[in-house]
């Protein structure tokens, strides 16, 4: 009987505790409400401006150099990589040409032009852009910092799935486990890392193949001279990147146009002069005959054919009658009278092909930084007119060193071509997997259509993959090594970033504790504005409690600032800042969330601090006008303030009845300074005693003028100087990842203050140690 009574009492206490937690959770939420209303006020204020016809033509002309440059340089090396050991039968050339034609038809044209290019994020492409699209349609982001207010952005486009549909089931399956979200991210990062490897291999093979033409008229020239010339050209190419994509694109676009005209004319010339029968390669039967005749060697040659993108009929016609020129088919096939002009244009085209992948690598790194998957590096916006034209000095020199190392080490096109082919085919496979999810979640296509696309794509791409995997020991290991290093960096950085965010969420301070301190926060309020930076978009960050428990003073105005990146390509300037008040007016505490897309940059001339304060002043003016409007809706700022006051009064009444109802947070990992006993004079229950609510109704000086005076007095940025360490008892791989790899990367990368261009004289770092 006694046991039953004891169990009943225990159950009753448990029920009371659960009720108390629920009441306190509601109390916290009401004190620090979401920013949905503030976001709604900004909705529809921004209208995207379209491009004029003239501007569209200008960008199209530039794309010749930046995009199609990489597509047009393949004739320099494809046949050499397809037949590295020579050509034994003329029919093999026809078979290889037939493979090239149908590979171009199936992969670049049908798959990429007609299908993959439609899976763009407002015109942005790449694995991370598709990942951003998926993050908006399913909760697969590992950093759960998105709020309902973010969905009101004009650039936050998404489609809703019908309940019970196959897309809804796929979405539920993908969101069900953390391991599935992480597996998706690893697949995305693998494709991204291979693209970074492409940024190293493309300049190496393109420039080396172009400069190799100087040996056609000088057969006795040493290959070391060709390598030396290639290295000098590569240094020149990377040294001019700081001028920006806009200028470089204008410089190279005419070269590519001339290049396409040259190779087109040369192709027609060779077909007419050497062998018009090569056109029979358009019949797919020669693919069958090619594999039947060459067997395993024919299958392995797919790795060289994979490098093909443009037309090769002219070179094929030449090789049918000149098999001995398999190494230098391109230069040997052109008329002698145009040899030197073609060599110059080919070298320029190689520059263009390299520029395409270099520019793409910059964009990929920028996207990875925004997704929390890469250390913060310096990113320079090179164009005032076009968003997304950027330059990364650190990445630029890393790519240059990588290109020079690959060129000087291999000294020939074959092994570099094998490496390049491996990178390309892995990116193709990753793209296919991401397209499956895009078709289901974003486009909501029928699963049968998705299945057909998947089978056909994998049938072709796995064939190429099986060919390049046989060449891993012949250069194919290079992109795998580059990808492994890049993947390690990205995965560790993202893993610790997620752990840091989770730690901050669990250790944030209770708003009731803050209110219990009274308007002075238990400190001396000195003139000025304190901007407390944190990753949190809601709640009071741990850094603030650490600050006020170790220093005797705090600024008259405190603004909690959260700079967060969203899975959108850009956030319009008019919708970037969300501002709201925290607590009663006399506390003078606010929250500001600055939102950025993965193409947005923190430019020095943006003047982040002034823009933030301007939005704060605008918020005060709007709030004042709304409070003076007696007909304002019940969701006005005034009503919300009254709701907070009423909530505090109700909480006080509850507190008088039962002290057990005083709960300051259900979160864990609190510091001692953030824990306040129930009977403490600083508790929220004694709020009415230490700070009567009626004081809010007293006459006060104009708040806007007060804020302006505080701004003139001085603005201080309070940032956390955080050291992350692995918890005691962590496994060895985790300790190595956090205590060594991440710590090294953190020391090498840029600080948040540098990203936001915070002057050193206005910066105050608060040291913290996170055990994750």
UniProtKB/TrEMBL annotation:
One Pfam entry name: K_trans
Record keyword Transmembrane present: yes
Chief location: membrane
Ranges in a coiled coil: none
Membrane-traversing stretches: 59-80, 92-114, 225-244, 250-272, 299-318, 338-365, 386-408, 420-441, 448-470, 476-498, 510-531
Subcellular location: Cell membrane
InterPro entries linked: K+_transporter, K_trans_C, K_trans_N
Membrane topology: Multi-pass membrane protein
Keyword field: Ion transport, Membrane, Potassium, Potassium transport, Transmembrane, Transmembrane helix, Transport
PANTHER family: OSMOTIC STRESS POTASSIUM TRANSPORTER, POTASSIUM TRANSPORTER
Family: Belongs to the HAK/KUP transporter (TC 2.A.72.3) family.
Protein name per UniProt: Potassium transporter
UniProt source species: Brassica campestris
């Amino acid at each position: 009987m006694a046991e039953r009574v004891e169990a009943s009492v225990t159950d009753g206490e448990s029920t009371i505790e659960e009720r108390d937690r629920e009441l306190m959770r509601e109390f916290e939420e009401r004190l620090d409400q979401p920013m949905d209303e503030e976001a709604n006020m900004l909705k529809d204020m921004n209208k995207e401006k379209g491009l004029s016809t003239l501007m569209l033509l200008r960008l199209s002309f530039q794309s010749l150099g930046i995009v199609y440059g990489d597509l047009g340089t393949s004739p320099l090396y494809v046949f050499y990589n397809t037949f590295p050991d020579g050509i034994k039968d003329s029919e093999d050339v026809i078979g290889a040409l037939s493979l090239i034609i149908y590979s171009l038809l199936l992969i670049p044209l049908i798959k990429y032009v007609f299908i993959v290019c439609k899976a763009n994020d407002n015109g942005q492409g790449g694995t991370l852009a598709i990942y951003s699209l998926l993050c908006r349609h399913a909760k697969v982001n590992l950093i759960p910092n998105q709020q309902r207010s973010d969905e009101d952005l004009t650039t936050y486009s998404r489609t809703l799935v019908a309940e019970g549909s196959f897309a809804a089931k796929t979405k539920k399956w993908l969101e069900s486990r953390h391991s599935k979200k992480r597996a998706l991210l690893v697949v995305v990062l693998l494709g991204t890392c291979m693209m970074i490897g492409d940024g190293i291999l493309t300049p190496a093979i393109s420039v080396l193949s172009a400069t190799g033409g100087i040996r056609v008229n000088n057969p006795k020239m040493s290959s070391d001279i060709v390598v030396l010339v290639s290295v000098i050209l590569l240094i020149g190419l990377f040294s001019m990147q700081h001028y920006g994509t806009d200028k470089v694109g204008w410089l190279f676009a005419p070269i590519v146009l001339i290049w396409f005209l040259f190779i087109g004319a040369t192709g027609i010339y060779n077909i007419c002069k050497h062998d018009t029968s090569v056109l029979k390669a358009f019949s797919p039967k020669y693919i069958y005959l090619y594999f039947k005749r060459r067997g395993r060697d024919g299958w392995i040659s797919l790795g060289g054919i994979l490098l093909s993108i443009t037309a090769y009929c002219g070179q094929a016609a030449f090789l049918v009658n000149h098999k001995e020129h398999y190494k230098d088919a391109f230069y040997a096939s052109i008329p002698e009278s145009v040899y030197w002009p073609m060599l110059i244009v080919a070298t320029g085209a190689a520059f263009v092909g390299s520029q395409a992948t270099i520019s793409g690598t910059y964009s990929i790194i920028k996207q990875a930084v925004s997704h929390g998957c890469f250390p913060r590096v310096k990113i320079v916006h090179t164009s005032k007119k076009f968003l997304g034209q950027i330059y990364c000095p650190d990445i630029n020199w890393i790519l240059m060193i990588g290109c020079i190392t690959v060129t000087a080490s291999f000294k020939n096109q074959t092994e570099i071509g094998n490496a390049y082919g491996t990178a390309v085919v892995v990116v193709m496979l990753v793209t296919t997997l991401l397209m499956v999810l895009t078709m289901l979640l974003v486009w909501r296509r029928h699963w049968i259509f998705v299945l057909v696309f998947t089978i056909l794509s994998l049938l072709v791409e796995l064939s190429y993959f099986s060919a390049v995997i046989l060449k891993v020991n012949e250069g194919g290991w290079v992109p795998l090594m580059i990808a492994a290093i890049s993947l390690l960096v990205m995965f560790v950085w993202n893993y610790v970033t997620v752990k840091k965010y989770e730690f901050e969420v669990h250790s944030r301070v209770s708003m009731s504790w803050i209110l219990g301190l009274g308007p002075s926060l238990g400190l001396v309020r000195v003139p000025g504005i304190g901007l407390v930076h944190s990753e949190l978009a809601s709640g009071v960050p741990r850094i603030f409690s650490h600050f006020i428990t170790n220093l005797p003073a705090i600024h008259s105005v405190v603004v909690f600032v959260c700079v967060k990146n969203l899975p959108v390509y850009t956030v319009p300037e008019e919708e970037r800042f969300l501002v709201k008040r925290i607590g009663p007016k006399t506390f003078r505490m606010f929250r500001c969330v600055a939102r950025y897309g993965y193409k947005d940059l923190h430019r020095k001339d943006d003047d982040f601090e002034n823009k933030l304060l301007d939005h704060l002043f605008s918020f005060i003016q709007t709030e004042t006008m709304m409070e003076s409007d007696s007909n304002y809706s019940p969701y006005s700022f005034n009503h919300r303030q009254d709701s907070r006051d009423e909530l505090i009064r109700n909480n006080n009444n509850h507190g008088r009845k039962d002290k057990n109802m005083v709960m300051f947070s259900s979160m864990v990992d609190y510091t001692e300074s953030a824990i306040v006993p129930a009977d403490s004079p600083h508790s929220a229950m004694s709020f009415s005693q230490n700070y009567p609510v009626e004081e809010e109704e007293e006459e006060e000086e104009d708040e806007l003028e007060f804020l302006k005076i505080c701004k003139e007095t001085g603005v201080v940025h309070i940032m956390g100087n955080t050291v992350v360490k692995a918890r005691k008892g962590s496994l060895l791989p985790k300790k190595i990842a956090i205590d060594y790899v991440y710590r090294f990367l953190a020391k090498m990368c840029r600080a948040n203050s540098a990203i936001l261009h915070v002057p050193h004289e206005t910066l105050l770092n608060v040291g913290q140690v996170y055990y994750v």
